[in-house]
Amino acid sequence: MEPNENKVLIWDAVVRLGHWLMALGFLVAWLTGESERLRLVHVAAGGTVAAVVLFRVVWGFVGPWSARFSSFVRPWREVWDYLVGLIRLQPPHYTGHNPAGGIAILALLALGVLTPLVGWCAYEEIGGKFVEEAHEALANLMLAVVLVHLAGVFIGSLAHRENLVRAMVLGVKRGAPQEAIGRPYTPMAVVLFVWVAIVVYWLLRQ
After folding, report:
1. Which of 23, 32, 50, 51 is a good FRET partner for 105, with 20 to 30 A between their CA atoms?
2. Residues whose CB is less than 8 angstroms from the CB of residue 49 and which lie 6 or more positions away in sequence, other chains included
3. CB contact burial 76-85 (16+ within 10 A = b; e otherwise)
4. CA nearest 9: which of 157, 150, 192, 185?
């Protein structure tokens, strides 16, 4: 641990709840993708992912510093330097999302909207076979990004000697006291949960 650094609250409740809802939604959607019997479960899972993404995009502009796009969307050169350091197991430490993680987040947010949207078109039988194949291709691409993200989390945890999965559960990471977000924004996480429930309910009523 660097001098003047300790465990501070970095990830607010919206980021953490959204992360795990999206992960669960994608996992369920993937596992039920080929099941006609679980079609509505698949729709609900996909709707969960899309609802979280839409909320997260807004939160990326109005949330605390660590949740904002401006904190983790970085120049490609910085992304490259971080990846080189990661391969050497000597990456620079970032209190918030690292540059490579920022790219993964943007990719997952984009795919988290496109994949359910195309899937909804397929569900409504719009576009025929082409749309069905496009939905499957997007889902496969999203899975690939998820796997790369998981690999990055594993390697980053080893390189930094910091449990990044635990950090996304508890919200605390190694950092300077002035980097702490101050409060967990729990009421906004409740708003997120209600928003997701409303979206899923609306989809299942169609």
Report:
1. 32
2. 22, 25, 26, 29, 112, 115, 116
3. eeebebbbeb
4. 185
